[in-house]
Specification:
Order of helices and strands: HEEEEEHEEHHHHHH
Number of domains: 2
Radius of gyration: 18 Å
Strand order of the largest sheet: 3-4-5
Structural class: alpha+beta
CATH class of the largest domain: Mainly Alpha
CATH superfamily of the largest domain: ATP synthase alpha/beta chain, C-terminal domain
CATH topology of the largest domain: Lysin
Helix content: 40-55%
């Protein structure tokens, strides 16, 4: 989840966005050159797009273009897929939702006396690096939703800890093939957007564990 409450967007920039950007099928694109903006995926798994030098989360822009204003409260991806920015997958989160979904964010920059990264934060940063490496390779060929969900889950659950960033493309391709060939029932559930409840999480974890044993 993410809000834009901490940053004031000028009316001039809002008018610029309204004039040159439109929402289309879960993506944001310019109206003047028809190019789809892919941006980059940050270490938390959100798609970030820069407009006039200012970074915006893609789902912020989708909400603004569809609702007319930036949300002044947290935005939640209903299916927890941070790259699924369809307007129907976004909602404003109440306090209970925030408590349930918001995770403590790591300190990304250090260098001051007495400030250091603990092991859990280092693990988050390494996972983010691997996620960026994997998704960047598919920048101009977006992954199907089920593959995005599977990849995000595998990395966030630590299954890629022993995979170097340069080997992520090979890892993910073998992972997708494994689910297409040997875990068709789970793949079907992911394709239909079935809620990732504890039961489905357990199934996906077990399947990825089996995949890792066969690697």
């Amino acid at each position: 989840m993410y809000s834009i409450r901490t940053r004031v967007v000028s009316e001039e920039l809002k008018d610029y966005i309204r004039k040159y950007f439109i929402y289309e099928n879960g993506t944001v694109r310019r109206t003047d050159n028809k190019k789809r903006f892919t941006g980059h995926v940050d270490c938390y798994g959100y798609l970030v797009i820069k407009i006039k030098g200012k970074p915006f989360k893609a789902h912020q822009l989708v909400w603004f273009l569809c609702k007319g204003e930036f949300s002044d409260v947290e935005l939640d991806h209903i299916n927890r897929d941070k790259l699924d920015n369809r307007i129907e997958n976004l909602r404003q989160a109440n306090r209970e939702m925030q408590t349930h979904n918001v995770k403590r964010q790591p300190n990304l920059k250090t260098g001051y006396p007495g400030i250091y990264l603990d092991e859990s934060t280092k693990a988050v940063l390494k996972a983010g690096e691997k996620m960026m490496a994997a998704l960047r390779q598919k920048r101009y060929a977006p992954l199907p939703d089920w593959q995005q969900a599977l990849l995000l889950f595998a990395v966030s659950e630590g299954f890629a800890e022993d995979i170097s960033p340069k080997d992520m493309e090979s890892f993910e391709q073998r992972l997708y093939s494994y689910f297409e060939e040997k875990q068709k029932d789970i793949k079907a559930k992911l394709e239909t957007g079935e809620k990732m409840d504890e039961h489905l999480k357990a199934e996906v974890k077990a399947a990825i564990s089996s995949f890792k044993e066969e690697m």
